[in-house]
Amino acid sequence: TERKYDVVGKGPPIVFSPGLYGSINTKLYSSFINSLKKEYSIITQKGLGILKKDDIEDIANDINVNKIGVITHSSFDYKILDSERVEKAVLLDPITIPDFTNTIQSKHIETDIPTSIIYANLSYSGETPFVIPGFDCIVEGPNVEKTYMDAGHADILDDIWANIGEMLK
Fold it and tell me: In sequence order, what DSSP letters do the residues of 140-158 get, joined into one string?
């Protein structure tokens, strides 16, 4: 059977989920992936689509590992943080669908998985922030570490995208 994902690099496996719920082509992340593949096996879904908890578990089963790392950029399915197969997670400027009660509220997510979150401060500042209030997510747990960088949301993409973002300031 043909795999539903691509693997590049050698080393411990990490599943990478690109932005806009997996609809951003991973080729736009080539610099990022190329730097990671020197030490890790980077797994990306073929085609476009949101990476879900079941996908993580299917990939782990397919490559015959009990646990797997996950890196996401921007929007992601927060339920992957419920998977017993995820060993560690890195969330790069995470965004998810907000809770719609009486108002738009940020999603609150609890996890026990060791999770590093990198927030791009420039995503949340200025007259028209890139991340609309309520679409950010608040991830909490005993193993959650948060870092704040003076960067923009697209700075994880190839340098050309970061340079374009700089021109928009």
Answer: E-TTEEEEEES--GGGGS-
